[in-house]
């Protein structure tokens, strides 16, 4: 097993799960208020290559603006409201820069799983900029775990910052997972929890990889997966599956 691994078992998905607007500083505050010690969030680049948090390619679902986020400069993105869609309480919430998120992680002593979420067509460029920004901002903290569905993004991250741990994300089963994770020097495989059978868990562990399961929102399923040997669970129910979840 890779010695760099020191992450907790429970990870707050998109910062605050269902309790706050995803991928915002308020979401991270919320995850911390619920006692969580590790957060997952989605990072991409603006047109002028600033690294910020957003899940989708477009702004439509989680902001008050439309269009492809990666086509706008940070100056254009920084005023956009990323909280009003969620509830009145969060009106005025902004899209956070990765630097602001790193500052929060440092303040709270939180571990980070930075999911590299490239705008379509910008896979390598995003992998490069996210990895370089992560290395620059996390200098005095435990290394953040980089992950991505994009092999190109992970390859670019590996090239730029080989010392940062990487995880490969799979939403559907891929028979070449072992070859891919080996080529990309991954320490972990991050899987849709529905893909995880006892047999597959044993196979992945035998290959020396850690396993993260997402998105696990039912305590019974969480208990089962942890008992089967899954190393980490990413959850939206940060209220039900807490940092000291018993299994
Ligand atoms: O990193 C785990 C999970 O966040 C991957 O799926 O779509 O929620 O980013 P998604
Ligand atoms: Mg994600």
From TrEMBL:
<dbReference type="InterPro" id="IPR030395">
    <property type="entry name" value="GP_PDE_dom"/>
</dbReference>
<keyword id="KW-0378">Hydrolase</keyword>
<dbReference type="InterPro" id="IPR017946">
    <property type="entry name" value="PLC-like_Pdiesterase_TIM-brl"/>
</dbReference>
<dbReference type="Pfam" id="PF03009">
    <property type="entry name" value="GDPD"/>
</dbReference>
<dbReference type="GO" id="GO:0008889">
    <property type="term" value="F:glycerophosphodiester phosphodiesterase activity"/>
</dbReference>
<protein>
    <submittedName>
        <fullName>Glycerophosphodiester phosphodiesterase</fullName>
        <ecNumber>3.1.4.46</ecNumber>
    </submittedName>
</protein>
<feature type="domain" description="GP-PDE">
    <location>
        <begin position="8"/>
        <end position="245"/>
    </location>
</feature>
């Amino acid at each position: 097993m890779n010695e760099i691994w020191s992450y907790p078992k429970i990870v707050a998905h998109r910062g605050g799960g269902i309790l706050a607007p995803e991928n915002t500083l308020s979401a991270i505050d919320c995850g911390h208020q619920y006692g969580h010690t590790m957060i997952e969030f989605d990072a991409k680049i603006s047109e002028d290559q600033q690294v910020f948090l957003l899940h989708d390619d477009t702004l439509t679902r989680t902001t008050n603006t439309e269009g492809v986020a990666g086509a706008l400069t940070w100056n254009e993105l920084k005023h956009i409201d990323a909280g009003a869609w969620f509830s009145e309480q969060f009106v005025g919430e902004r899209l956070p820069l990765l630097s602001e998120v790193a500052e929060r992680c440092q303040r709270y002593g939180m571990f980070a799983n930075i999911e590299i979420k490239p705008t379509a067509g910008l896979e390598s460029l995003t992998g490069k900029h996210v990895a370089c920004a992560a290395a620059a901002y996390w200098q005095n903290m435990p290394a953040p775990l980089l992950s991505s569905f994009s092999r190109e993004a992970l390859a670019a991250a590996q090239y730029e910052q080989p010392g940062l741990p990487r995880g490969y994300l799979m939403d559907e089963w891929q028979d070449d997972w072992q070859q891919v994770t080996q080529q990309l020097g991954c320490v972990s495989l991050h899987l849709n929890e529905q893909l995880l059978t006892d047999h597959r868990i044993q196979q992945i562990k035998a290959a020396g990889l850690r396993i993260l399961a997402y998105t696990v929102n039912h305590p019974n399923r969480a208990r089962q997966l942890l008992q089967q040997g899954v190393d980490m669970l990413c959850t939206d129910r940060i209220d039900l599956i807490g940092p000291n979840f018993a299994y």
